[in-house]
Amino acid sequence: MKIKQIKVFICSPGRNFVTVKVITDSGLYGLGDATVNGREMAVVTYLEEHLVPCLIGRSAHDIEDIWQYLYKGVYWRKGAINMAAIAAIDMALWDIKGKVAGLPVYQLLGGRSRRGVTLYAHANGETIETTLDMAEEHIKQGFKAIRLQSAVPGLNVTYGVLGDKKDYYELQGNRPLPPEEDWSTHKYFNMVEDLFRQARERFGNDVQLLHDVHSRLTPIESARLGKLLEKYNLLFLEDASMAENQDNYKVIRQHTTIPLAIGETYNTIWDCKDLIQNQLIDYIRVAATHAGGITALRRITDFASVYNVKTAPHGAPDLSPICFAAHMHLNTWAPNFGIQEFVGLGNEQIRQVFQQDIQIKDGMAHLSDAPGLGIEFDESAAKEYPYRRSYLPVSRLEDGTVWNW
């Protein structure tokens, strides 16, 4: 079964997504996600000009060889653009493989390790009270794990807070130029412990609580935060500091026992190798789209299991439903799966473009037994939502210094 054609689509049903469709000479096809938020057209060009011509005529069954060919066969390895393009091809080939076998992808990986996939929802508010009100709504819906983010008084915008947005997919919506946001570590520390103190007073200890720092703190500041929040028994603290220097997490680990999670910006196993094997983190959060697809995440998952590190795949709205489906299959299989980030199944426009049969009940997601990834892409509907240039924000300290976003 040969690869006959590869189509690349970019559409914006509320936000931009890059979708790859690999079509075989048998008529079977597979889908993959290649979205890199704010750099979508770079991936489109890389796919169309450089990868697609190399794949026409190859066997669609040779997933491993194609992955190695695209990774090792180019001198310029790694990087967000390269790995997202590889990931999309890889997902599509696994989708095809499942359709040929008549089995869902998780069965090809080794079968189920669990009945369903535990999710954590997001609660974001302009005040602590509104954040906790949203958390309560999620708890009523059956979610047993909630990520809490509240606005920092005195800052114009705070990461993770919706403001007047009605839908999470509008939060980082289509912005023609990068917006700029303020950050103050001092003001943040004045708020954050109170958020979790009030949450535990209101909800008790049965609900799992999480928090995303989004790499805004230095390692010693993160160590201080970990010590402050230990008493509130968080499931994990996400992206406490940047870890381009992976030794940063040695500093944090020395000062706190709070569980640590990181990895959403990582592109390969090499980005997280030291963090995992030195047991400096407890959850690895790589995304299938940004780190080389199902083939790569399976390797990272197995490697992490040796060092007691669980998976908690990134699940932000800049990953398409195809990536979410890929995560669901990996999560259903992985014996060391921890928890899946969840921001909903998309707005009405997204559900028109991407059709999937994933059921959410009592804070867990359940896959159907549809072959492959179990998701469809409506090309006609996608045409109704053309690409619009969009950017993530730029963060600055109050004195104007560019900071981590």
List the helices and strands and how they pair.
Elements: E1 3-11, E2 17-24, E3 29-33, H1 40-55, H2 63-72, H3 80-101, H4 105-109, E4 117-125, H5 128-140, E5 145-150, H6 168-171, E6 180-183, H7 185-203, E7 208-212, H8 219-229, E8 236-238, H9 248-255, E9 260-262, H10 269-277, E10 283-284, H11 293-306, E11 310-311, H12 321-333, E12 340-341, H13 348-353, E13 354-356, E14 358-361, E15 364-367, E16 375-377, H14 379-383, E17 394-397, E18 402-403
Parallel strand pairs: 4-5, 4-12, 5-7, 6-17, 7-8, 8-9, 9-10, 10-11
Antiparallel strand pairs: 1-2, 2-3, 4-15, 13-16, 14-15, 17-18
Total strands: the figure is: 18
Briefly, what CATH class of the largest domain?
Answer: Alpha Beta
Average pLDDT figure: 95
% residues in beta strands: 15-25%
CATH architecture assignment name of the largest domain: Alpha-Beta Barrel
User: What sort of overall outline do the alpha carbons produce when their principal axes are compared?
Assistant: globular
Keywords:
alpha/beta, three-stranded antiparallel sheet, single chain, 405 residues, Enolase-like, domain 1, TIM Barrel, 18 strands, 14 helices, ten-stranded mixed sheet
Notes on the protein architecture:
38% of the residues lie in helices and 19% in strands. The chain is of the alpha/beta class and 405 residues long. Strands 4, 5, 7, 8, 9, 10, 11, 12, 14 and 15 form a 10-stranded mixed sheet that branches. The chain has a 3-stranded antiparallel sheet with strand order 1-2-3. Helix 1 (40-55) crosses helix 3 (80-101), helix 2 runs antiparallel to helix 3 and helix 3 (80-101) packs across helix 11. The chain is globular.
